[in-house]
């Protein structure tokens, strides 16, 4: 057959931004966002996001600029996932738990033109900007004042932002034009979001995902989780984690209600489930721990779907969570894949198995989702697929429409993990096996990464801080299993011999806390005369992990 | 931000064909197809489709060849939706209700290399091939013998296909290699399916849809209908109608069970729902009529989702269908958009309204689905959007990823409806209005089309047959409303004056039946001395439609 070329009617770029316009027609007066005493409808959210995009345009934001956000899951955070890219800008969500130094590095690296700052992060951001070199322009700031957060309002009254902030968020929204013509991408490959996965002491790794990538992740996330129309989603997953795995856009697609929250514990979760009839929530396994470790709660009335990723839920946590009326689904993805690309598709016959067996099966990451083209586990030396025996380890490699465009301003690192010349696959750095039934199981996330409470911690970043300590000779940081957090960083330290005064464990930890975001600092320090090494001088981290694991916590 | 280019890991072509491989892993031993005494699992369906593709390759089918299928919704029909494109070929499903002449025209126009023929259509296809000019090669034939269809087997015993058929379907599958490496598209814009929308007397219009278009329609159809995992779908929608709106691929994505059937009436439907726990079905409104007009049936135990398109379900049909436990959703699409692109998103508050009001709202086609970029109703003269008043009519125009690549071998007709130079939209030919709430309502499908029992009938095709009658002077064919079929063709005929012997209504109908597929022949013929015309001589079809409508049926 003669080839027909793409035409004007079918080659319009894929983008999730149009979902909002549709939601305003299809779910007009239905609730879009609920937060304390704040309630918006889809029609209102549509108008507010257009206003937001309009105001961004008014203050000089143009196609291709980067706009950053430092905020928890409050309503503005949701709106910004639409409003920023609707102005043509690239959205850069920043983890609120970073320290001023890291924040400064990322804001400089991203060349942010404007930052939306939650009021509780304002002093942090101002400090970060003070660390900018004199010859680099600092971004404009908009203050997210949270009038609806009673607790925060009383503890941290913010003075009018006359000096540092160009406007408050609400003022900014109000000044915008709800009839603004939002800026459509010229190509579906245009960048839409930028998400940093590291950046304290090592080179910042800014993952760039296109409109097409986000679109594909959004539809994939809806289908894979079988999300019905008008679900009620409790935002226990930080949106700054890979854009809440694309569910902000997914909720607009299905007209869901977003239950926003600033921070939470088990009783907040139970209360909100009860109050709003929550049907869905996502989160790191630490959220499951939270739910399942509270002895005081009765099972929820209607089943709540909970989707977790990052690390498999431990068997007792899984059993307890499910006994409380939650339906757990487990998946795997990276910031570099924009969300979950492999998930543990559940077979009905498995429901008949005993708890422990069900937990073992559910702990596996699973099979490719429909948005992924290929997933495989390959031998690092030969590049061949490993045996499907559940034993032979190899590196997890992927190919699919949601894979990032690359790391921002880092072609070298980009081509290190996406080797276009050879097999063209994305190398995740994670180690896994394939079971005889084709299900993938991760045995070791990327050697360098410790996952604590859903946050990825680069062990090399922690190590490089420790090396700056004057008494430290050699260090290795590994993950130590933790009942609650999943893992915490554990540092093995050998000291320089010439000094007689030895630092204490607490002193080392304090040293790190002063130089790293708090969650990245080691929780445990083990002094050792010498670190175990291979014949070629490489530290044998697997031995250290065994030691860390064996310690009574 | 610097632009990053698509890379080897994320620019792999979108295609639904990989869903099958995934289904074999994720839904291994779960049922894929059920038909009389036949049952397949997803693992078996995966292997059978690979074998099919392998055998096609063995008999010389290559990338870009067209392979046709003339079959009802039996298991091979399902398998062929994967097997044919997995061989690299373009899949051309042909309506089983066509006559030999039309079939011959389509097989020649499509340049089919091979045709899969259901045993009940074998004499028809052989007749069609006998109509080929001597200098045109006829395609190879594979016979779909249906050993599992008791009724058919007894009425139409087929002799071994030694002469005309190269193989039986089962033989063909068995000879194939289940380890065949299926042929992936080189580009997601490569053609995947070819579906004819007309072709008897007027030029064949062969709609070409790409792998990308089918992928987008498939995910769109799943999300818009909120299809859960492992639904049970009763195949009351012919797969040869725009590939069953892409649900063959959708069922593989969610691991559904496909309940196949050769033909059906209300009692078949009820029995299969009961027997297999059917949860989902699609069909033209005639299927709703069937369900709702049977007085003997009790409401179904569990709600059955039923999706309809083509024409809005009439209020009493809707009310009765819903009272029987069916949940009706209504959408709009064309073969040219590969399925439903606009649907009547239902608002919870509408559930409180009286039946008649709910029916009025549900009769509207609705809002764009998430797979569509734009839908609008524009004034044909000015190209401007019409007022959103529910009254001002205009032409429905669309833009979105599922729009066809064009009509096969007909660049003129393609560019007539997709005017890339001007606004770049696809012009549907359908006439609609937009209500103040943004919901679209079709007032008139393309002037030229009559929809009878879910089949599109081109009135100009019927007219041109009537014009070949020696006694006919002038004709106009319009739709006449029909309780059961929705519409039937009604011919207004003026006769030549010089003849005194007038034909009867029956003679005219017989004349058409001899020259057209049976369903296309007029059901009513009205003789008229002169047809009403405008001052410029155009037949005023709207007046004829009024007359047709007013006739007691």
From TrEMBL, chains A, B:
PROSITE patterns: AMP_BINDING. Residues 461-538 form the AMP-binding enzyme C-terminal domain. Residues 20-408 form the AMP-dependent synthetase/ligase domain. Gene3D superfamilies: 3.30.300.30, N-terminal domain of ligase-like. InterPro entries: AMP-bd_C, AMP-bd_C_sf, AMP-binding_CS, AMP-dep_synth/lig_dom, ANL_N_sf. Pfam families: AMP-binding, AMP-binding_C. Keywords: Ligase. It comes from the Eukaryota. Belongs to the ATP-dependent AMP-binding enzyme family. This is 4-coumarate--CoA ligase. It comes from Xanthoceras sorbifolium.
């Amino acid at each position: 057959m003669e080839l027909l070329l793409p035409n004007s009617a079918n080659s319009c770029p894929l983008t999730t931004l149009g979902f909002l316009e549709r939601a305003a027609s299809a779910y007009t007066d239905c609730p879009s966002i609920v937060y304390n005493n704040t309630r918006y409808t889809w029609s209102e959210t549509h108008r507010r996001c257009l206003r937001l995009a309009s105001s961004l345009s008014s203050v000089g934001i143009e196609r291709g600029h980067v706009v950053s956000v430092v905020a928890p899951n409050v309503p503005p955070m949701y709106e910004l996932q639409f409003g920023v890219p609707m102005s043509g800008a690239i959205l850069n969500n920043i983890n609120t738990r970073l320290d001023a130094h890291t924040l400064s590095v990322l804001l400089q690296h991203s060349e942010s033109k404007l930052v939306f700052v939650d009021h509780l992060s304002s002093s942090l951001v101002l400090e970060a900007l003070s660390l900018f070199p004199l010859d680099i322009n600092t971004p404009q700031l908009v203050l997210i004042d949270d009038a609806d957060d009673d607790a925060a309002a009383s503890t941290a009254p913010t003075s009018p932002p006359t000096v540092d902030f160009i406007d408050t968020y609400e003022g900014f929204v109000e000044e915008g034009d709800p009839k603004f013509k939002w800026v459509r991408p010229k190509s579906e490959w245009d960048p839409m979001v930028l998400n940093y996965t590291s950046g304290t002491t090592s080179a910042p790794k800014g993952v760039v995902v296109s409109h097409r990538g986000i679109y594909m992740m959004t539809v994939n996330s809806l289908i894979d989780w079988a999300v019905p129309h008008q679900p009620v989603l409790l935002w226990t997953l930080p949106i700054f984690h890979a854009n809440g795995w694309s569910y902000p856009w997914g909720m607009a697609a299905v007209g869901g209600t977003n239950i926003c929250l600033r921070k939470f514990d088990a009783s907040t979760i139970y209360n909100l489930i009860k109050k709003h009839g929550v049907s869905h929530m996502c989160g790191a396994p630490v959220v499951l721990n939270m739910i399942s470790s509270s002895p005081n709660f009765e099972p929820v009335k209607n089943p709540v779907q909970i989707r977790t990723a990052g690390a498999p839920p431990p068997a007792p946590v899984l059993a307890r969570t499910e006994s409380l009326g939650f339906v757990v689904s487990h998946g795997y993805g990276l910031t570099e894949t924009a969300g979950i690309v492999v998930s543990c598709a559940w077979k009905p016959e498995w429901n008949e198995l005993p708890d422990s067996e069900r937990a073992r099966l559910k702990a596996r990451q699973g099979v490719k989702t429909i948005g992924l083209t290929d997933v495989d586990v390959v031998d690092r030396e030969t590049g061949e697929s490993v045996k499907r025996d559940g034993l032979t380890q190899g590196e997890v490699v992927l190919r699919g429409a949601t894979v990032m465009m690359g790391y921002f301003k880092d072609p070298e690192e980009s081509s290190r993990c996406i080797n276009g010349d050879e097999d063209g696959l994305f190398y995740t750095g994670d180690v896994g096996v394939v079971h005889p039934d084709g299900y993938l199981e991760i045995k070791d996330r990327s050697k360098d990464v410790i996952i604590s409470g859903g946050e990825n911690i680069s062990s090399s970043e922690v190590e490089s801080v420790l090396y700056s300590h004057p008494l430290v000779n050699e260090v290795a940081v590994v993950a130590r299993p933790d009942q609650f957090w999943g893992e915490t960083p554990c540092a093995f330290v050998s000291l320089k011999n010439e000094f007689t005064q030895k630092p204490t464990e607490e002193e080392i930890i304090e040293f790190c806390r002063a130089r790293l975001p708090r969650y990245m600092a080691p929780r445990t320090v083990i002094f050792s005369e010498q670190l175990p090494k291979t014949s070629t001088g490489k530290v044998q981290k697997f031995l250290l992990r065994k030691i860390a694991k064996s310690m009574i916590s």
